[in-house]
Amino acid sequence: MIPNERRTALATQCLWSLQESATQIEGLLLTRVDGLTWTTTLEGDDSTQRLAAVATAMFLLGEEASESWGHGESLEVALKLSSDDSPDDEIGQPVIRNVLMRPVGYDAILVMVCRVDELTPNFYDLMDKAEQYLEGILLGENPPLPLWDD
User: Fold this and answer.
1) What is the C-alpha separation between 27 and 25, in angstroms, rounded?
2) Which listed residue, of 2, 39, 41, 87, carries a Cα 20 to 30 Å from 56's Cα?
C-alpha cells in the first residue's frame, strides 16, 4: 500500500511520540519493503535513506534465513552495533547502539535505534504497541495513538 498524506502524518506522529517517551531512542524509521523511507525522526539526508535500504535488506535477509532453516517467518531482527573508533560518551565509554527491526504488515518495516548496552523488555513492549498502531494505519483504520508509559 502506498502511504497517503493522512497515513504519513499519523505514522510520523506515532514515531515522534514514541521517541519522546524513551530518551534512549535515538531515532525511528518506517521504511517500505522496497527500501525507501516512508517517515522518520532522523534527519532526512542521504544517510537516512541508506539506513532505510540497509535495514530493509537486513530484515529481509533474516526473514529469508529463518524460512530457509525451517524456522518459519521472521518476527524481528535485532542488531548490536559498536566500534572501537566510535565516539566515546561523556564518561569515556564506547557508544553502543541496538537496532530493532519489526515488520508492519506486509508493506513496511519499523526500525528503532537505541543508545543502550542491552534492549530491555520495555523496548520490545514499545515496539509491540507501535507495530499494532502502524499496522492499523496501513489498513486504513483510525486507531487511538498508543499510550507509551502505562
Assistant:
1) 6
2) 87
